[in-house]
User: Which sequence fits this backbone?
């Protein structure tokens, strides 16, 4: 469904014009989310499977059918996986301009 990890890491940024993240008004129990922390002057992109612009503090719902999620950005930062309404991250991984973070999900 998504691109192989090697292809994702080498791909150029492809955020569509106007494709910006929107934080959900409330998180749902049982759903997986990714929270991104980085410098406020930076922008990253999340790929699951299409690219979307991500800003500091954004919380994005991971598509239910997603098998993987990649977060990358020019400045780097931290990507955290959240589960349901719990604010404590289940996984927290750094990313940088030359090393995106790739999360893989089981079915």
Assistant:
């Amino acid at each position: 469904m998504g691109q192989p990890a090697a292809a994702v890491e080498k791909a150029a940024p492809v955020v569509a014009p106007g494709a910006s993240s929107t934080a959900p008004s409330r998180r749902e129990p049982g759903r997986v989310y990714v929270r991104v922390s980085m410098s406020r002057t930076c922008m990253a992109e999340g790929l699951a499977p299409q690219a979307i612009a991500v800003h500091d503090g954004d919380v994005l719902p991971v598509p239910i059918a997603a098998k993987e999620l990649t977060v990358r950005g020019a400045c780097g930062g931290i990507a955290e996986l959240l589960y349901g309404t719990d604010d404590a991250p289940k996984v927290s991984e750094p990313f940088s301009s030359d090393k995106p973070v790739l999360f893989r999900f089981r079915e």
